[in-house]
Amino acid sequence: xxxxxxxxxxxxxxxxxxxxxxxxxxxxxxxxxxxxxxxxxxxxxxxxxxxxxxxxxxxxxxxxxxxxxxxxxxxxxxxxxxxxxxxxxxxxxxxxxxxxxxxxxxxxxxxxxxxxxxxxxxxxxxxxxxxxxxxxxxxxxxxxxxxxxxxxxxxxxxxxxxxxxxxxxxxxxxxxxxxx
Length: 180
Fold this sequence. Notes:
Radius of gyration: 17 Å
Shape: elongated
Mean pLDDT: 85
Low-confidence stretches: none
Number of helices: 7
Number of strands: 0
Structural class: mainly alpha
């Protein structure tokens, strides 16, 4: 029997594979894996099918899945660790807080979005690049996970904890999905 957990794990892996392919193609906003086959995933599958001269259906049938995995395997086989990029402001007392905008906030939202599925049924944080109410709420939740003061403001300790969590979880299927 094909369980919901297996389905979500397969979707999550499909999204990881597509994201890696999109990154290689220079996509401006690559797919964020969340285990849900929504409109963004269907669009990414259709784009891959178009580029790969496959029937454009938006579904990952056997031929599409096999081609996506082959492209992913080829790309990831040559991956090396990239140089570290510093997205957090460099000042010792720097923070990211409500109203801030820019690439640092976008990366913060991306890390929250890829970490939240590992902690249950929490609402996603939209990738807007603006430190909005959703981002503040996500940071408060994350600060609670880390045992930090739940201020909703991202200080260096919050950023570091979230980065370490994100890096440790990024290629893992959320545990709750595996237990269903």
